[in-house]
Amino acid sequence: MDQPVDNIPLPERADRAPASAEAASPAQAARLATDYEILPQAIAHTPRRFQLIWLLPLLAILIGAWLTYKTLAEKGPDIQIEFKTAEGLVAGKTRVKYKAVEVGQVEAIQLNADLSGVVVTVHMQRAAEPYLRAESKFWVVRPRLSLRGVSGLDTLVAGAHIEIEPGSGETRRTFVGLETPPVVRMDAPGGKYILQAEALGSLDTGSPLYYRDIPAGEVLGYTLAPNKKSVYLHLYVRAPYHTLVQENTRFWRVSGVDLSISAEGVKVKTESLQALLMGGVAFDTPDTLKGSVTVQDGHPFWLYDDKTVIAEQAYTKHIVFILYFNESVRGLSVGAPVEFRGIKVGKVTEIGLEYDAQNTTFRIPVLIQMDPERIDALHADQPGEEVDAAAYDLMEALVQRGLRAQLQIGSYLTGQRFVELDMHPEIPLKRSILPGKFPEMPTMSGSIGEMTESITQLLKTLQSLPLNEMATELHGTLKGANRTMNAPELLEAIRSLKGATAQLETLLTELNKQPVPLGARLNGAAEAAQKTLTQTEKTLAGIEEVINPEAPLHYNLLEVTRELSATSRAIRSFIEMMETKPESLLFGKEK
């Protein structure tokens, strides 16, 4: 506060007297009074409580608080990603990107507890916090060369970086990074489905999916099914092909080279080079099956081994018969087709061996499964039991009319055999006396069995023949035939027959020139021919006496003699007609 004016001390001077009034002289007192009158007078007032200068530190405090809040508010979370190796990653330099936009940076890299990998600490931006979900994926983008192509070439200049693919689920701060990039991005249009198979086979992540040989998707990955007895394949079908996947869609393998050897022969089928190296899957929606509802993501399907197996699965009703064969069934295997006149109607399901104690013989039971739906007469919309009953009744009626089963060779190259059904009413119906669990279809020997049986019967017949005696008689017959062929009588008969033939040719030539008055010559020629035939008959009669009556040559000579006798009778009839009606040569014989 301001002090009173009376208390303000005056400056002292050397030439002035002390300030005490009692000690000062009158002159000094007058001068002092004059000095007081010269000094300025202070004005007393009340000071202000708030100074403007105080705004500067207050403003500095507010700005600092705002910056602190903004920094804390914009600071993103720190996450940890575990990789197998830190190859290409550098702390403080490697970026985390999503669609080429930076959303984080690697802060630290260290080994995990068991030294099996590395833990990468990443500081993420605040805007990237919604991406950190349970199904989010992280992987290191590096240059890669695979069957699907080349990727990550831009990292040769800019260096490796971590790519993030946002997912769904609960918030998470620890992740396990992928060693390879995902085949399909989460935002790619299309559908994702699950295929169940007995085994993985040649399929792998990235194996192609085909629709009518057009690439339509890929295999995302695979896992073991909860029952530990099958495999789940996660399949992606890109747009617009995902709209073709319906409830009755069927998937099958097209992996590599399909080589099959069966009763139908050897079949070799190959696919594209990519499918040959990585395997593949194909799908189609058959028009013969019911259902046309498009399914949602995650719908399960069964993966068939081959497209032909799908056709087998289309038949849901089956009837079973048992066949008994007494011949060898070598080459017949389970799964071999059962055909009726070349059309497949079933397959072999079991082959056994039974001992018949009553006859002390063995027989081979073969169980076959037939599909009544393959027969148009039974392909009706009726309950399964009625179809089975109608099918058994129809088959029994056919058996009574001659339906028999036999083994046939499907391929002479592989020796595979199959069961053929056909109508053989000439084969008697024979069935086993003992009742069985399944209805029995009668069988007959197959082509191989018939051939074997015929050869066996022929060998038995040959063994029963008196070959030594037959050889002796044959030797004698050949000697007699030799003597007959060289006999002078036979040579003379041949010469006479040759002369008669020449005369007959001359006669016919003259008839062509002069057809009317040649009766005399014709009679002469006929008489000559008659004489020749008579001489030939005598010669043959002499030869018959020489040849053994039981020899085959004797029978042939008898036939020749009969022919000559018939010729002789024809010539006599001709001569008689010429004598009575010579004009018949010109006008023909009267009717």
Q: What number of domains?
A: 5
Gyration radius, rounded: 60 Å
Largest sheet data:
7 strands, mixed
Strand order of the largest sheet: 5-8-2-3-4-1-9
Please work out how many helical segments DSSP would assign.
12
Beta-strand percent range:
25-35%
- Total DSSP E strands: 25
Instruction: List low-pLDDT spans.
Output: 1-8, 10-17, 379-384
Average of the residue pLDDT scores: 75
Which structural class do you get from the secondary structure elements?
A: alpha+beta
Distance between the termini: 183 Å
What does this structure look like?
- By secondary structure, this protein is of the alpha+beta class.
- It folds into 5 domains: 5-38, no CATH class; 73-176, no CATH class; 190-312, no CATH class; 318-455, no CATH class; 469-587.
- The protein has 12 helices and 25 strands.
- The protein has helices at residues 26-38, 55-74, 155-158, 273-278, 307-313, 384-400, 447-464, 467-485, 488-513, 519-546, 552-580, 584-587; strands at 78-83, 95-98, 101-111, 118-124, 137-141, 144-146, 149-151, 161-165, 174-176, 190-197, 208-211, 214-224, 231-238, 250-253, 257-262, 265-270, 281-284, 300-304, 319-325, 337-340, 343-351, 354-356, 361-370, 403-409, 417-423.
- Strand 2 and strand 3 (101-111) form a beta hairpin.
- Helix 9 packs antiparallel against helix 10 (519-546).
